[in-house]
Design brief:
Elements: H1 2-7, H2 11-28, H3 33-37, H4 47-70, H5 80-90, H6 95-113, E1 122-125, E2 128-131, H7 134-149, H8 161-175, E3 182-188, E4 193-196, E5 199-207, H9 209-216
Parallel strand pairs: 3-5
Antiparallel strand pairs: 1-2, 3-4
């Protein structure tokens, strides 16, 4: 993934974002207004709040990309207060409104990606200043991770192998900025190797990319992994 970010080879990731978005919309179109108010898999969040977060994240990324294109760099989120207010507004939206928001904000972000001519231009992200190409991986991670959280039956076994590899590597970038996490050496079946955490002696943990990703993001207990018994990861995202 680091090579992809450096070289700006983003089109395969953009294609998977589009596919992941359509898969999400296909699952959520069947939800009633009442279903949207039900709890998601994120503690304290309704499905409507998760959907609003996905949409507002697309808007925020779009603003960053447009800032890169115009030369007027903008932060991902202006303030925590604005983020919280947006979630509260979305918590009472109708199912149709949420579906439209998810669709139109995804389209707006993709249109902004289409304006980029130099994917190595720097962009301000929570992880620090990175090439703007990093945003496409960040968006893929956002859509797939929160699709799981929406609790519509979407599961890790629906994540294709290439996507899972990118997601694992992106999550590892995030987790290396966190302190106090258990020390682990991850080795995936596809050959991804990542060292995370700074607490305790490192443990070797092996498994598929998808299973490792689900575990380190706190979405599973790592049942199908080897070597990670007893380690619980906080929710990422």
């Amino acid at each position: 993934m680091r090579d992809m970010i450096r070289l700006g080879q983003v089109e395969p990731v953009r294609k998977r974002i589009a596919d992941a978005t359509q898969t999400l919309l296909g699952d959520t179109i069947t939800l009633s207004d009442t279903d949207w108010l039900e709890p998601s898999l994120l503690p304290g969040w309704s499905r409507a709040q998760v959907a609003t977060h996905i949409a507002r994240s697309a808007d925020a990324m779009r603003q960053v990309v447009l800032g890169v294109v115009s030369g007027d760099l903008r932060p991902l989120y202006p303030s925590d207060e604005e983020r919280r207010a947006a979630l509260e507004r979305g918590a009472t939206a109708s199912g149709l409104e949420l579906q439209i928001e998810l669709d139109t904000t995804a389209g707006g972000l993709d249109a902004a990606f289409g304006l980029v001519t130099n994917w190595t231009e720097p962009a301000p992200l929570p992880l620090g200043v990175m090439p703007v190409s990093a945003l496409v991986v960040a968006r893929l991670h956002e859509v797939v991770l929160h699709h799981l959280d929406l609790n519509t039956g979407y599961a890790l076994d629906r994540v294709d192998a290439v996507t899972a590899r990118w997601l694992l590597q992106w999550a590892a970038l995030w987790l290396r900025t966190k302190r106090g996490l258990p020390a682990v050496d991850l080795v995936s079946e596809s050959g991804v190797r990542e060292s995370l955490g700074d607490t305790g002696e490192p443990l070797l943990v092996t498994g598929s990319d998808a299973a490792l990703w689900g575990w380190v993001t706190g979405r599973t207990a790592g049942e199908s992994l080897t070597g990670g018994d007893g380690i619980a990861w906080p929710l990422l995202g």
